[in-house]
Amino acid sequence: MDKKIQKEVRHDQTGSISYDERGIRLLEAPALNKGTAFTHAERAAFGLEGLLPPSVETIDQQQRRIFQQLGQKPTDIERYIFLIQLFDSNQTLFYHVVMSDPAYFLPILYNPTVGQACLNFGHIYRRPNGMYISMNQKGRIVEVLKNWHEKDVRVICVTSGGRILGLGDLGANGMGIPIGKLQLYTACAGVPPQGLLPLLLDFGTNNRELLNDPLYLGLHQTRPTIKETEPFVDEFVQAVQESFPNCCIHFEDWKGTEALHYLARYRDKVCCFNDDIQGTGSIIVAGLENAMRITDESLKDQCVLFLGAGSAGIGIADMIRSAMNLEGLSEEQARSRIWMFDVNGLLENTRSDLIAEQKAYAHEHTPTHDLVTAVDSIRPSILIGVSTIGKAFSRTVVETMSKVNERPIIFALSNPTEHAECTPEEAYNWSHGKAVYAAGVQFPPVHYNDDTFLPGQANNFYVYPAIGLAIYATRPKFVTDEMFIEAAKATADQVTEKQLKMGMLFPPQSNILDTEVYTAERVAELVFERGLARVEPPNDISDWIRTMLYKPKYTDIVH
Questions:
Q1: Which of 19, 80, 95, 110 is catalytic?
Q2: Domain count along the chain
Q3: What is the CATH number for 89?
Q4: Domain-ending residue, one of 35, 70, 102
Q5: pTM of the full predicted structure?
Q6: Are 202 and 485 in contact, with CB atoms under 8 Å apart?
Q7: Residue 8's domain spans which residues?
Q8: Does 48 share its domain with 71?
Q9: What is the pLDDT of residues 519-558, one digit of tens each?
Q10: I want to staple 421 with a disulfide (CB 3.0 to 4.6 A). Which of 43, 158, 214, 392 is the partner?
Q11: Which of 19, 80, 95, 181 is catalytic?
């Protein structure tokens, strides 16, 4: 193959692709492989003759075979494993399949199936699909990062495995989360995949079952303290600045105290965000924006009670507080409207076991360990569950919310499914159809009397891929809460009045790409308005962003 063709291939629409590989090595390169779609001319040019069946297929023909094979898998975890194998062998076909029906594939590739995949990560492991940096490599992180093949990394999704979904400390098994998160960057928002890097920072794990598992792939040691890990994380953050100067660090599924600590430590120094804190807060604000359309009220006038006061709860509370600020409330006024309840009861000002971030929401109140008593006393209009305690919103809790509100807003956000504080069927039945409900996982439609409700999934995948696309395009100096609030408003604006009447608080997942690209455009506009971009503003942001979108199609190499 001549050098002219090689150069043309490197700069096609999928990014830094090179067809220097030949033969079996080309078929084993997932970013380059086309499988049975290689033409006869390409097979001759790249030493593929005899290595493939004689038929030349289109990507749509390949997709039909994938759907047939998927239909033969008995469970979602089997379908997940099959799709990851496809990702490992042919990324273009993988994204072509997933983007053809995102509403079907999102629950398989991410919540709730990814939780089961993480629990079994060491047992279903096949390829690394990212980078693994352990504390044993302290002092050499820049050197280790040089081993990554792509030099223009725009987003690193990094976990410590400390708090995976509602499953707790899974250590190195948590790598399934960054892999899945970044796949959704591409599948949901068209972010070019070659600029995305899943990464695990391995401190060890306190999960004894994993430490005793001979197939566990991480460090076989217990976790050190934040004081011990901080120099290592500092080195990692600085190494990213040196190795990938256009990169944003997406922190994901860190232990609650670590998540809050490291976001506060780096957010004003480098381009970074924490999806569990800011992304979760953003999608909840989006849901509440539309709940306000249903109740014909303003967010600034609401009273919010959280069940759960960890990093997710605090992140959501902070984002709601920022949204209330933008509606005219002072910091103190906004804080006074937000309450929290955890395993030790209501957060109130006599509690001595609270961290600084929790104290901001500990108000003067009689101590109580009973959620129903707290609801009856505080009279919240919004009840948000981030407790990971399944069925924590009992019938009495929902009935009490319905007694003090005409349209109680109930968000049961814990996942996987069995950890949801209540199901939509319970919420609608116990509130006599009055509840405005959302969950952290997707539930089926609920029929109540003559109405059919379509409960929404308040999942970060509506927001963080769009934020990622805006970051990919604008290369901002920092990521701000205002960017996440703008993403929330843009997401909420795309829900129609008809959809609201059916209980939908979020746009349909079937059109997720258009939804997220529109949200990314709105966020990019804000980035330019605030002077945060490290690129020059285009004449037309929409056209500019759409030219960057990844399209899972094969490119003809030899004509």
A1: 110
A2: 3
A3: 1.20.1370.30
A4: 102
A5: 0.90
A6: no
A7: 3-102
A8: yes
A9: 999 999 999 999 999 999 999 999 999 999 999 999 877 6
A10: 392
A11: 181
